[in-house]
Amino acid sequence: APDPRPILDLFRIGGRHAVVTGAAQGIGFEIAKGLAQAGARVTIADLNPDVGEAAAASIGGTFEVLDVTDVAAVAALAARLPDVEILVNNAGIVRNTPAEDTPDDDWRAVMTVNVDGVFWCCREFGRAMLARGRGSIVSTASMSGMISNHPQPQAAYNASKAAVIHLTRSLAGEWASRGVRVNCVSPGYTATPMTKRGLDTPEWRATWLGETPMGRLAEPFEIAPAVLYLASDAASFVTGHSLVVDGGYVCW
Ligand code: NAD
Fold first, then answer.
1. Which ligand 1 atom sits nearest the alpha carbon of residue 89?
2. Is 91 in the pocket of ligand 1 (CB under 6 A)?
3. What is the CB neighbour count within 10 angstroms for residue 142?
4. Domain that holds residue 16
């Protein structure tokens, strides 16, 4: 049946409980802020309580210390917050090492946070969503899951983000008929603490700007509306999608 709501109301998520991981700073914080402005009750779940507590307070949300790689902690949080309808898997890390010199621990750290962490959260928060027959999951993947960034070497990161995009498709297929949509956003270069090293490295900076058709990096707030769209009823028939927000990078 047609939805009687005016189109902008489809973006409202009033009263829904949203958990955003890795949202003490950077892209995650802007996503948390945007979801709060759209009416959600927001929980920021991050490793870093020093920054995270203040970040949550500034948007009227709550803070939970969480390491997404700690599956028992993820399960415990999901059990304590059974009403979560929106999960944003945003926590992620990068390591820049030439492939042939990549230490085992760097490879594992990237995969553990960026892939395992996303799956643990999907599995643990997804159960209650499936039981309720309603939920929306949005992960922060990356354009790095579609192209191999350069000049900085980051094979583990690129592989991890490709995994997030395909995990998204896989879960979307499994859960589509049960009311749970699973999507991701794939940002291009975005000005956050994560990219500071690159911006401070003249060769990296020149390549990043030169190869982004818009000639600049994204600001973190420019990623949030894409997440809101996918999280909300505006995307009621969208699942398994990777929404690229990259200033045209992957087109070139
Ligand atoms: P950031 O480093 O500024 O922030 C990452 C946040 O995640 C921090 O608050 C950190 O404490 C938290 N975090 C790290 N490990 C965690 C863990 N194990 N458990 C819980 N929280 C953890 O990074 P950002 O640039 O804002 O990136 C956010 C997401 O966007 C990441 O998944 C990143 O891969 C992705 N991304 C970033 C860019 C970019 O150019 N900045 C581009 C594409 C995708």
1. 32
2. yes
3. 29
4. 7-242
